[in-house]
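Task: fold both queries, return tokens.
Query 1:
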Amino acid sequence: MDRNTVVTLLKYKKWADAATLKSIISLDASADSQKRHLMLRLMNHIYVVDMIFRANITGQSHGYTALNTPETPSCDELAANMNACTDWYIEHISAMNDADFAETINFRFVDGGDGGMKAIDMINHVLFHGTYHRGAVGWLISECGGVPPKDVMTVFLRDHNH
């Protein structure tokens, strides 16, 4: 996968995350509060994993001891955090060269185990990990009477990637 494809997929991720959070915001906050809370927990989990892999890619400590935070951010806070994180990925990856993508990076998993992955494999994890959880959130949005976003790649490419 070349850099331009990765950047396009990150732009898709940014769009899909934002559309999902917008659908959550549109729900009646007092109705189905437990399901709405779960939606935010799932979206926050996506963000935390994105931040963990961001630190891994740059060889820095991430400071997380779990795959989610004890507190649940507001939808607005989460939207800002996710947007900024994905913007970082877009900027960082735009500056990478082919050799950078192939570099194996050693790191520690949150559970303490040793890991080593190529940078491109870490990026792929960030790109595809969230799709699973956004799908679950979409299902929960439907269960709460909301309209989940049409977060398919073809819609994104048609409307946002000219």
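Query 1 returned. Query 2:
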Amino acid sequence: MKLPIVAYGDAVLRKKATDINAEYPDLEVLIANMFETMYGAHGVGLAAPQIGLAIRLFVIDATSFAEDEPSLKDFKKVFINAEILEESGEKWSFNEGCLSIPDIREDVERKENVRLSYFDENWVKHEETFSGLAARVIQHEYDHIEGKLFVDKLSPLRKTMLNNRLTSISKGMVKVDYKMRFPAVKKGRR
């Protein structure tokens, strides 16, 4: 089932998400719905806060980047209770977007490697290091479970320049081809 994606300005996007356990209700269904929602919005990652749940869960399917990075050919993963252990390497810039902030893309600098501990959908614990685009997508989604957005990494001047567009998004004044929930729109108006 495709779920509505929460738009910029909703308080859930600013909450630090909480850990869950294996007894979380209908987790398997939630994960399947998150993948379906992400694919329906043409995304490569989706974090639970983006569908209104302040829990430490995100899903990624970076296989669309396989042409640029062949190692991503089968990169489809579920991350539960993830914790970044280390970010390393040079910072590099890449043009990022976000399903919660449609129609805005900006160059964001992130470190090239990330070491992460997390559980997969079968509650197997992993500790892995990811590099390149995989690391970038993980860092972007990880920010969501920490209550941060990619626009927070922009210079104050650039963020000020985007302020009117961000406000418009929160009011639902943006065209998207997927379901969204806008914080500044009264129920029944959209």
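Both queries returned. Flag for query 2: The beta strands are 5-6, 45-47, 57-61, 76-98, 101-119, 125-131, 180-181.
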